[in-house]
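Q: Hi! First time doing this. I have a protein sequence and I read that you can turn it into a structure. Is that right? Here it is:
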Amino acid sequence: MRFLIPALLLAACNTPDGPNTAEPVGGLQDISLVSFEACVVKGGAVMESYPLQCSLDGKHFTENIDTGKIGDKRTLYFEVGPQKSDCTGMMPMKCLNVNGQFFYDHIEGFTHKPGVTSVLEVEREQYCDPDVFNSCPQDVGIYNYRLVRVISEG
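A: Yes, that's right. Below is the predicted 3D structure, encoded as structure tokens:
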């Protein structure tokens, strides 16, 4: 799904409907450009590489794909699209569109509002270790997500 492309070739982030050409959501001045996720939410160019890379305002960030350990927490920034999309996990379902990609998990404390794009600060906590046999349930993610704050809605 991800292909390594030379670092100088930047491509738009793909969404379920094609390339992400949308302007970044307003009210993003509260987000510091200090991480890959913040770069994506602020409208940075995402390179189709492994791991993904984002570039904005002369700064470059790489997606953190390392699995951590149980209890590890990380702050993420999500731009949640205005509509859910048909997707298939263990069965057909409706997925949030987060940072231009299907999001199969639940965000504790967040209720999606159809027609509204939301920018969120979210805490991600790892609750199992995929490297330990039978530590994680099958067919689910390894993280819990909790809403910290809604940065903007529009």
